[in-house]
Amino acid sequence: MSKVQIKEESDIVKARSVAKEMARDLGFGLVDQTRISTAVSELARNIFAYAGEGEVYIETDWDHRKGIRITFTDQGPGIEDIDLALQDGFSTAGSMGKGLPGAKRLMDRLNIQTKPGEGTRIIIEKWLDK
Amino acid sequence: MATSEKTMEVGKERIDRLIDTMASLTTGEYDVTLDVDEKNEDEFTQVEFSMNFLIEQLIYERSENENKQQELQEKISLIEQQKQAIQELSTPIIKIWDQVLVLPLIGTLDTRRSQGLTENLLTDIATSQSKIAILDITGVPAVDSAVANHLLKTVASVKLLGAECVITGIRPEVAQTIVHLGVDLTEVETLSNLAEGLKWAFDRLRIRMTQ
Ligand SMILES: Nc1ncnc2c1ncn2[C@@H]1O[C@H](COP(=O)(O)OP(=O)(O)OP(=O)(O)O)[C@@H](O)[C@H]1O
Ligand SMILES: [Mg+2]
Questions:
Q1: Who is most buried in A29, A65, B48, B195, counting CB within 10 A?
Q2: Which fold has domain A2-127?
């Protein structure tokens, strides 16, 4: 398992590379490695953009499943409406609104826990044993 | 042991002044000195002198410290400048043919770098009167929505200058990811590699010439 603190923009790249390396070592192919690292990039960027700082936790062993699981935690403003945030094109930042829905499509599982004013925790998983 | 029994009287006022001075020092206020009555020198005068000496020493150390800090700050900004210079150098804009520019992008595109790249490209297009810009992203490891957004913005700005833009070198795994991400690049001309991009450029130029 690995932990990357997100404080500045370059930390997004760090999180992405660590995730990609771990995915490769676990046996994911190039396409999946790219999917995983892109999803990490999106969610880590959201931490940087909306919460300012937070943490990315990457693990490859849980619940007897073979795969990669990445947890993004921040103490930022939280997400008001999860369903809305997961819609393509929804953005409070005038951006493309592709991050959350995109990450969901790129991974096998995406789970959001959030409380306005307290923060957000997002878990994504990609499994080798589907 | 007669000497150890020796005592002296010091006025409370002098002790208070000494304490005040020390208090100032602890708050970082060094602009103080003790008035020393040299005419009526006694053993406590030595303490007062030492205190003044200490203050001078502190002032000197502080200014040395500030100089060092400034030096360090200058070095840091020099490194920052060099870093930026290297980044810019690492993305040369190549005039590959009359009116055709190639931008071989390598490495991670963060916000700052993308903005710099776009600016440089626009300037170069304007000064060289180029009509076509080829953005080759073979060397870009990942295209997330932020990078895609930068690329789209660059393409749009190039269009505003009356030139055309083509993106080449999107690797298969990157292409798949972009599609999953839901980023729409259909409005943008994309080709598999630089050679294709050049062919396309020549076709466009010929079309322009015959028009
Ligand atoms: N960690 C977070 N904390 C608070 N709000 C968030 C967080 N992540 C996402 N959001 C909210 O959810 C919205 C949708 O996020 P998403 O990543 O899908 O799009 P975006 O960041 O606005 O645009 P894009 O990622 O395409 O540049 C954001 O605009 C923001 O309001
Ligand atoms: Mg986002």
A1: B48
A2: Heat Shock Protein 90 (3.30.565)
Please give the Cα distance from A124 to A72 (Å, whole number): 9
| Distance to chain A for B150, nearest Cα, Å | 11
Q: What is the pTM of this model?
A: 0.70
CA–CA separation, B102 and B133 (whole Å): 6
Q: Percent helix, strand and coil across chain A, each rounded to 5?
A: 40, 30, 30
The answer to the question of residue B210 being in a domain is no
Per-residue confidence band for A62, with pLDDT thresholds at 50, 70 and 90: confident
Question: Which residues are placed with Cβ below 5 angstroms of ligand 2, an ion?
Answer: A 46, 99
Nearest listed ligand to the Cα of residue A103: 1
Q: Does the CB of B142 have a partner CB in chain A at under 8 Å?
A: yes
Q: Which two tokens stand for residue B92?
A: 């040369």
Q: Which of B105, B81, B143, B108 is nearest to A11 (CA)?
A: B108
Per the CB < 8 A criterion, the answer to whether A45 and A102 are in contact is no
Specify if B40 maps to a domain: yes
